[in-house]
Amino acid sequence: MNKDLIEFMEKSTSLSREEIIEIAKNIVVNRYSKKTQLLRQGEVADKCYFVLAGCIRQYKIGDDGREVTINFFTENQAAVIFKSYKQRTPSEYFLSCVEDSIVIEGDLKSEEDMYSKFPMLEKITRTMIEQNFGEEQEERASFMAAVPEERFRMLLKKRPGLINRVPQHQLASYLGITPESLSRIKKRVSKDSLFIKP
User: C-alpha distances in angstroms, 62 versus 65, 67, 91, 177?
Assistant: First the structure.
């Protein structure tokens, strides 16, 4: 039985230990190596993921052939392209492991079976998704309205560990700037107490 999953559920739910152990027996937990492609642009997403450990990048390749990083999903975040997963349409994005990752992996059929077997799990899952989605929407709106240096500072404040976990060119793409601009911003910000060094 997966220790990471048990620990996460004990911290994140009000379920009893017995219920958690029973649910854990029915949940698929997989480990993926760094650089594993979980979903490719143009494929229909048939799985959803919840990160217990590691980091998954969401990105796309534009018409000009450039990679554009949209998001990074780390511990306790769901990594799923909802439109493709729920509506069975081709995904506009890739999902790829930036680090070795441990994830809860599900599909629509297993979700339905689990919710039928454990009705409380559906409520818990929905609450977590709604909360994560609401927070992400607010953060994304602020992020998009900010200039690059403000975006970097926001990232330091909200997700400080991410700075040292992902390749700098991917981080620059996420911030909407070039790697060279990111280096200049890091130098300026490094003089402030906010900057977190490895």
Answer: 5, 6, 13, 15
